[in-house]
């Protein structure tokens, strides 16, 4: 069984005793004098079921910071909603209020309804009622919107200002909402939403679409002119694929050429480095070779000097008993010995110089040979370098330039083809947009249509139950109840409901709401409870004009009939008047006394 019902309403504050109210399935009556919090209870429940703001906040409630509303579905699955007083989002706990602790897990539900969003209170409650995702027609053109929790809240929670209204009991009085509100009731009594309806196109929008269609035809004509001298889109695509392959091959060839250029550059650098080293070595050898002649000349001079010394010594050794021609001294044997030693030393030195001259001659020979070798190497490397430079300048660079030119040409052609293909894509897009608009225009239903709406056949069961209740309550001269489609309201014994007095309008409103609840018991889609504030609005009111009041017998019959209501749904009645004594045990009666010494003072007990 679908739907929800109230279990407990609770206010909590720091170091304050909870203000709590428990509900049961079936009938709940909250009664008592004014200023005991009855209307505030109604407003809190409305607020905890998704109303954006709390209509007012009574002075006694300012000591509390949190509101809890425990509910259950008709499979007895309990959940609790928690909120602040400032319009914040809800915390939803999968347990009763009593079992909530600081560590209890919860999920956040947004207060505001959002179509298609599943993280809102509206979507969560509507799923419990098997109504999530239902669509409601909102105007004569067939425009639709999602059913929201607000639609059910307005229909099932009736405050003391609405209960005696002259407006239809399922309309809020807002002209622009009449169609949607009637279709909400149609959904609840038939189980069929308006999802199959196709929205008509308003004249202004239709004119806009025809204007767009005309513009699209002009743009399509402009695009078609571009293809006068071109082939098909498939030809352009094929040509682009071929040129793309050609471009890729050119790039591969250029990459190979770049690699070849890099290799030649490395080789050229090695040759330049080798030639430079050889030239440096050759310069060094030439300097050594040049210096060797100076050394050789010095060696020869030294050898000649030594040879003279040797010859003089030999001559002196052959002469004896003579005087020195220079100093006129006589040369004895000692002198001859000294001359012999000098000559011997000179001879040894001369032999050494001869050896050095031979070594120097060998070095000169080696210098000459290495210079010749270096000249040959430099000449060979220079020839190789000239060949590489020629290859780079005349072959590789020219080929690289040619490839770049070919690649640029291929890219230009690809760009040209891309422009053509873009034009084809633009044309395809324009054609598809044109087709969409033509389909919308062709499929749009006529503006003047007759939609399936509420009629007497839809509401026959509810009308029958209303008649039963009104007879049971002693409504005067009631013989039949029917639905008047023109006024979107019920007709009582041939007279429009809104022509009755204030008290009778409240009673007939209550009969509609109780009938709706009773007829929905076997339904797979329903809200599950309703709340009525002051259905006996004119009972025992001394200032009620004549013809507006209801009788004491009618009020008593109203209360007594509540004993027979089933517990498959929940009714919450808020009333100033006391209930008959015999009902105290048959319904959940919550009585406020406004007397601190007798019973329960009110919803919130004032501080002593």
Cα-to-Cα separation, first versus last residue: 46 Å
Anisotropy-based shape: elongated
* DSSP, total strands: 16
Oligomer: single chain
CATH class of the largest domain: Alpha Beta
Percent in strands: 5-15%
| Integer count of domains | 2
Biggest β-sheet: strands ordered side by side in the sheet:
2-1-4-5-6-7
Low-confidence stretches: none
* Global structural class: alpha/beta
H/E order of the elements?
EEEHEEEEHEEHEHHHHHEEEHEHEE
Q: Roughly what is the average pLDDT, rounded to an integer?
A: 88
Proper CATH architecture of the largest domain: 3-Layer(aba) Sandwich
CATH topology of the largest domain: Rossmann fold
Q: What does the main sheet amount to?
A: 6 strands, antiparallel
Radius of gyration: 59 Å
What is the count of helical runs? 10
State the helical fraction.
Answer: 40-55%
Question: What does this entry look like structurally?
Answer:
- The chain is α/β, with parallel strands linked by helices and 608 residues long.
- It folds into two domains: 4-199 and 451-591, Rossmann fold (3-Layer(aba) Sandwich), CATH 3.40.50; 233-443, Helix Hairpins (Orthogonal Bundle), CATH 1.10.287.
- 50% of the residues lie in helices and 12% in strands.
- It has ten helices and 16 strands.
- It has helices spanning 38-48, 121-128, 149-156, 178-190, 203-226, 233-317, 333-443, 460-473, 502-519, 552-561, and strands at residues 4-12, 19-22, 26-31, 66-73, 78-83, 90-93, 107-109, 135-137, 144-146, 157-158, 481-484, 489-492, 495-496, 529-533, 570-575, 588-591.
- The strands form four sheets. The chain has a six-stranded antiparallel sheet.
- Strand 8 and strand 9 (144-146) form a beta hairpin.
- Helix 6 (233-317) packs antiparallel against helix 7 (333-443).
- The longest helix has 111 residues, at 333-443.
- The chain is elongated, with a radius of gyration of 59 Å.
- The chain starts with a strand and ends in a 17-residue tail after the last strand.
- 26% of the residues are buried.
- The model has no long low-confidence stretch (mean pLDDT 88).
């Amino acid at each position: 069984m679908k739907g929800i019902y109230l279990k407990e309403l609770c206010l909590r504050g720091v170091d304050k005793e909870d203000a709590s109210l428990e509900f049961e399935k079936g009938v709940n009556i909250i009664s008592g004098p004014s200023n005991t919090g009855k209307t505030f209870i109604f407003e809190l429940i409305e607020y905890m079921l998704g109303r954006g703001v709390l209509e007012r906040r009574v002075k006694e409630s300012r000591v509390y910071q949190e509101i809890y509303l425990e509910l259950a579905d008709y499979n007895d699955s309990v959940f609790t909603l928690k909120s602040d007083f400032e319009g914040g989002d809800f915390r939803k706990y999968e347990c009763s209020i009593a079992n909530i602790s600081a560590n209890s897990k919860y999920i956040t539900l947004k207060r505001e309804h959002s179509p298609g969003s599943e993280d809102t209170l509206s979507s969560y409650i509507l799923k419990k009622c098997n109504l999530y995702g239902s669509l409601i027609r909102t105007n004569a053109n067939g425009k639709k919107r999602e059913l929201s929790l607000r639609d059910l809240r307005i229909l099932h929670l009736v405050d003391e200002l609405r209960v005696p209204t002259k407006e239809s009991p399922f309309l809020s009085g807002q002209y622009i909402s009449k169609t949607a509100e009637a279709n909400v009731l149609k959904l609840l009594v038939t189980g069929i939403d308006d999802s199959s309806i196709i929205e008509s196109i308003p004249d202004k929008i239709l004119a806009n679409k025809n204007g767009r269609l005309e513009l699209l035809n002009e743009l399509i004509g402009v695009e078609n002119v571009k293809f006068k001298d071109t082939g098909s889109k498939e030809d352009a695509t094929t040509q682009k694929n071929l040129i793309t392959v050609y471009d890729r091959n050119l790039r591969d060839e250029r990459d190979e050429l770049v690699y070849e250029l890099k290799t030649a550059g490395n080789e050229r650098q090695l040759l330049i480095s080798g030639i430079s080293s050889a030239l440096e070595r050759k310069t060094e050898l030439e300097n050594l070779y040049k210096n060797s002649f100076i050394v050789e000349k010095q060696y020869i001079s030294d050898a000649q000097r030594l040879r003279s010394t040797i010859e003089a010594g030999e001559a002196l050794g052959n002469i004896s008993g003579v005087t020195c021609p220079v100093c006129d001294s006589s040369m004895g044997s000692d002198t001859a010995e000294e001359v012999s030693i000098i000559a011997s030393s000179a001879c040894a030195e001369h032999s050494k110089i001869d050896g050095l001259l031979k070594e120097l001659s060998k070095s000169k020979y080696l210098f000459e040979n290495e210079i010749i070798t270096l000249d040959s190497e430099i000449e060979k490397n220079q020839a190789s370098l000239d060949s590489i430079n020629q290859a780079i300048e005349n072959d590789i660079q020219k080929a690289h330039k040619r490839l770049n030119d070919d690649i640029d040409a291929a890219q230009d052609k690809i760009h040209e083809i891309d422009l053509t293909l873009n034009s084809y894509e633009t044309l395809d897009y324009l054609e598809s947009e044109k087709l969409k608009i033509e389909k919308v225009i062709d499929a749009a239903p006529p503006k003047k249509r007759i939609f399936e709406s509420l009629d007497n056949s839809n509401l026959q069961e509810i009308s029958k139950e209303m008649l039963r209740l009104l007879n049971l309550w002693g409504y005067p001269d009631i013989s039949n109840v029917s639905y008047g489609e023109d006024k979107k309201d019920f007709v009582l014994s041939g007279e429009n409901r809104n022509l009755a007095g204030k008290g009778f309008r409240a009673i007939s409103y209550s009969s509609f709401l109780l009938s709706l609840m009773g007829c929905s018991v076997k339904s797979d889609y329903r809200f599950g409870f309703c709340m009525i504030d002051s259905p006996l609005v004119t009972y025992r009111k001394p200032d009620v004009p004549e013809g507006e009041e209801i009788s004491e017998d009618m009020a008593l019959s109203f209360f007594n009939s509540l004993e027979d209501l089933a517990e498959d749904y929940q009714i919450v009645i808020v009333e100033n008047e006391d209930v008959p004594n015999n009902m105290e045990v048959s319904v959940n009666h919550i009585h406020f006394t406004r007397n601190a010494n007798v019973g329960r003072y009110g919803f919130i007990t004032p501080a002593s």
